[in-house]
């Protein structure tokens, strides 16, 4: 049997200094990469935690602001409700006071003596000077009864001229029917006959309201510059509303009649 004299050499690659250096560098790179990856992961987690914490703080601040706004809104609503209730309470008290003084109904007073007492008690008074024999007085009665119930802020009265000669002389009542419009105890205006009401027996209650509103004797909610009979020209009479300012700057409306 033949044996080879050449002895087999063991694999000593790993023992080579160069190979050792290679593996050392590889290990360092691997460690560095692992360390870098670990640092990135830690940094990412730190940033994530910071962002979450910041978001939480911002959310809490936003919730606090919203709660504050809600509280302000609720407080404001409560104040508005209180003011509203207080206004309603005062309005109801005022209405009861008016009713206790005879407002809210169209009634007759027996003599001129009562007239002075009535106008003294109330800020706004409308008094119809009438005669039983005058047909147009009955037409006016019908409308005044409606307006009196609607406008409780004003007192509506009627007085027979035959029972008030002194007062008729003092107020210069010459045409029947005549409405005397009294404000703060002083006669402010007159509605003489139906001329200011469209010059017709068939005027509407709204027309009467408008005319009373022009004098400021009732709280009129319509447009004073647009009378209900604006386009009416019956009996050769045309009506025009003029707006003017008083010395104090307040606006007043005046009904101007043009005869043609």
TrEMBL record:
Its main location: cytoplasm. Keywords: Coiled coil, Cytoplasm, Cytoskeleton, Nucleus, Phosphoprotein. CDD domains: Phd_like_TxnDC9. Residues 52-97 form a coiled coil. It holds the Pfam family Thioredoxin. One of its GO terms (cellular component) is centrosome. It is found in: Cytoplasm, Cytoskeleton, Microtubule organizing center, Centrosome; Midbody; Nucleus. The keyword Nucleotide-binding does not apply. The keyword NADP does not apply. Signal peptide: none annotated. Residues 85-213 form the Thioredoxin domain. PANTHER family: THIOREDOXIN DOMAIN-CONTAINING PROTEIN 9 (PTHR21148). Forms ternary complexes with the chaperonin TCP1 complex, spanning the cylindrical chaperonin cavity and contacting at least 2 subunits. Significantly diminishes the chaperonin TCP1 complex ATPase activity, thus negatively impacts protein folding, including that of actin or tubulin. This is Thioredoxin domain-containing protein 9. It comes from Xenopus tropicalis. The gene is txndc9.
